[in-house]
Amino acid sequence: MSRDEPVPRDPEDSPRDKLLFTPGPLTTSATVKQAMLHDVGSRDEGFLAVVREVRERLLATYGLAQTRGWEVVLLQGSGTYAVEAALSSLVPRDGKVLALVNGAYGQRIVKMCAAHGIPCEVLRFEENVPVDPAAVDRSLAADRALTHVALVHVETTTGVLNPLNEVGRVVFEHRRAFFVDAMSSFGALPLSVEEAHVHCLAASANKCLEGIPGVAFVLARREVLEASKGCARTLTLDLHAQWRGLEDDGQFRFTPPTQVVLALRQALLEHEAEGGVAGRGARYRANHEVLRGGMEALGFQAYVPRENSSPIIATFLYPRHPRWDFGDFYVRLSQRGFLIYPGKLTRTECFRLGNIGRLYTDDVKALLHAIRAVLTEMGVETPRHG
Ligand SMILES: *Cc1c(COP(=O)(O)O)cnc(C)c1O
Fold first, then answer.
1. 10-22 pLDDT tens trace
2. Is the pLDDT of residue 173 over 50?
3. Is the pTM of this model over 0.90?
4. 35-272 belongs to which CATH class?
5. What average pLDDT does range 365-372 have in this prediction?
6. Pocket of ligand 1, beta carbon within 6 A
7. How far apart are CA 306 and CA 293, in angstroms?
8. What is the Å distance from ligand 1's center to 82 Cα?
9. Across residues 350-360, what is the average pLDDT?
10. CATH class as words, domain 19-29+275-378
11. Sign of CA dihedral 51, 276, 218, 110
């Protein structure tokens, strides 16, 4: 879809809600919110049919199906729950994880391993550069005990896009298992589990799929799930047991977030109507171009070089100006109806602007207009650097 022909905004799209220029939860369509206005029984055939449809559609998002050896396990909770479920229930007792870290979400994987007593080696990179496949190759060659490699596809801390296929090839050549946190890429960026030799990936309803927070999911090769029986370190995050429950009687083991699943079905229909991954990705790229170009024109400096950046979120350095104050900037933008996001970097002072969710280039232009006005109010006329 071209930038000049945005998907028309539903006139009922939350006219009073602030627009969320964040990494999630995100602005969603009115129809996704309306899909939740039902009370359904968790064991009722109507709901079980929705669960089946959602599982099929999640696989179909990337052309996968059970017939091709791929399974999808839905799980209550936000995306972190799915990542932790995958790590804590698929890595065997004698396993060891190589965590590739260039941001807070990679670091979260390290924390999860620590919490479950899973041996973990950490390979760190600067936060504005992608993971280096050659370094992964060296680590795997040096330590035969490593069984699994964990990569965050888009590091939402900064927006850095990591080289999924290249890392996957290295992992495959060393015959190890490849786990991917695809939270902020699933549904918007191209992804071939075959080309990247992925064993399992975790994502959630409320990022690029534009659903409601509360349900997450893991896509995994069937033999990976089968091999994990009895391996889980917790009851609630036991992926194998959750999968068997969904397969055997179609149900979640524990109370499902019924309304959230109804909303996810609607979100998946809207994803398909927009042209699937290609269509959604094109809208986000258009948003991102306008956002990044507009911010740079205002004098802001992006933290991640363009060539390393995903079209999901952008990180901007704090301007060096005596009257710059992020708290003040945030509140003034919020009063104008725009919510932005603080930074999450370990060393650099920055803030983030997400461009995913039910947002269009006109919304981005409105945000840029508001930023210009707020800077003038604050007396930060030219937020230049150096
Ligand atoms: C959003 C996100 C998560 C999950 O975070 P939650 O707060 O649990 O939703 C995990 N990894 C990445 C890369 C993310 O962007």
1. 555 555 799 999 9
2. yes
3. yes
4. alpha beta
5. 98
6. 23-24, 78-80, 83, 105, 152, 156, 181, 183-184, 204, 207
7. 11
8. 9
9. 97
10. alpha beta
11. negative
Please give the mean pLDDT across all residues of the chain.
Answer: 95
Q: Which residue has the higher pLDDT, 82 or 386?
A: 82
Three-state secondary-structure class, residue 154: strand
Instruction: Go through the chain and tell me how many residues it has.
Output: 386
Contacts of 378 (CB under 8 A, 6+ apart): 323, 324, 325, 328, 329, 332
Q: CA–CA separation, 298 vs 368, rounded Å?
A: 9
The answer to whether the 19-29+275-378 and 35-272 domains have the same CATH topology is: no
d(CA 255, CA 169): 39
Nearest residue by C-alpha to atom 4 in ligand 1 = 79
Task: Please report, rounded to a whole number, the percentage of residues in the chain having pLDDT higher than 70.
Answer: 95
pLDDT beyond 60 at 322: yes
Pocket test for ligand 1, best of 22, 76, 80, 100 (most atoms within 8 A of CB): 80
Residue with the smallest CA separation from ligand 1 atom 2 is 183
- CA 367 to chain centroid: 22
Return the sign of the alpha-carbon dihedral for residues 256, 259, 263, 265. positive
> What is the Å distance from ligand 1's center to 83 Cα?
9
CA dist 274 and 270 (Å) reads 6
**For residue 8, pLDDT beyond 60:** no
74-121 pLDDT, tens digit each: 999 999 999 999 999 999 999 999 999 999 999 999 999 999 999 999
CA 116 to chain centre: 23
Residue 340: its pLDDT value, please?
Answer: 97
- Supply 37's token pair: 């206005």
Domain ranges of the chain: 19-29+275-378, 35-272
What are the residues whose beta carbons fall under 8 Å from the beta carbon of 283, sequence distance 6 or more?
1, 6, 7, 274, 360
Neighbours of 291 (CB within 10 A): 26
Spacing, Cα 384 to ligand 1 middle (Å): 31
CA-to-CA distance for 311 and 35, rounded, in angstroms? 28
